[in-house]
Design a protein that fits this description.
single chain, seven-stranded parallel β-sheet, 7 helices
């Protein structure tokens, strides 16, 4: 059953809004009355999303942003704050994962994952901090249950998400006047998480999962459920620390 959220007038910047979790959060937040700024690398997808949100009566501004570039991080935040007259919240949803075993991972593989999943989060936060302090706002970061229970081939992603948890805790310690919220998601359907893996590599790695009894994956959570839970962290007045969002149990199995 859809939840009723009230984000009327909230000025929200969603990073990674061109697909998956970020796009779904933008849709839920817009329906709840938020004023939105959308940022991602794929500007054509952002333009399409913004057009659909505006057609439904929502405010949506678009900013091209590669979170691996410091100038893009600051430009998206500054542009969003200027367009919206400040910021009440940011949602950091970018996340990439090559399908590669640790023994085969290159330095470039590590840099790409950490830039997008960890360093970009901190750089965006640093840029947004003055605006969030002025509004007594909050920053929300999307973590993953894989940080607790990973699989062969997705360890780079899992390590980056484990580090993200430490990053959020560190921002809380340094700036207690801003709410920093870590939302840990279980397996979620409808994302582009595996879009770049390729069938040959999937077959090779998933054979290990099957041989070791790690596959098939547990029950998947609908994308809408994840997006509503994330948007709810923006609507609630109470401070939330680490929030876990998992698939519902059915017939005794997750």
């Amino acid at each position: 059953m859809p939840v009723e959220l009230d984000l009327s007038g909230k000025r929200v910047l969603v990073l990674g809004a061109s697909s998956g979790i970020g796009r779904a959060v933008a849709g839920v937040a817009a329906k709840a009355g938020a004023r939105l700024a959308l940022a991602a690398r794929r500007l054509d997808r952002l333009d399409s999303l913004a057009a659909s949100l505006r057609a439904a009566g929502s405010e949506a501004h678009v900013f091209a942003c590669d979170v691996a570039r410091d100038a893009d991080c600051r430009g998206a935040v500054d542009g969003a704050a200027a367009a919206l007259g400040g910021l009440d919240a940011i949602v950091y949803a970018p996340g990439i994962s090559p399908l590669v075993l640790l023994a085969e991972a290159s330095r470039d593989d590590w840099r790409e994952v950490l830039d997008a999943n960890l360093v970009g989060a901190s750089q965006v936060t640093a840029a947004a901090l003055p605006h969030l302090r002025a509004s007594q706002g909050r920053a929300v970061y999307i973590g993953s249950y894989s940080a607790r229970q990973t699989l062969p081939g997705v360890s780079l992603y899992s390590v980056s998400k484990l580090a993200l948890s430490g990053l959020v805790a560190s921002w809380r310690m340094e700036h207690p006047d801003v709410d920093f919220i870590h939302v840990v998601l279980g397996n979620t359907a409808g994302t582009e998480f595996a879009a770049s893996w390729g069938s040959e590599r999937i077959a090779k790695i998933t054979k290990q999962w099957i041989d070791r009894g790690l596959f098939p994956a547990p029950k998947m959570m609908p994308l809408r459920d994840a997006a509503e839970a994330i948007a709810a962290t923006l609507a609630l007045g109470a401070f939330l620390d680490d929030v876990g969002v998992m698939p519902r149990m059915r017939d005794g199995a997750v």
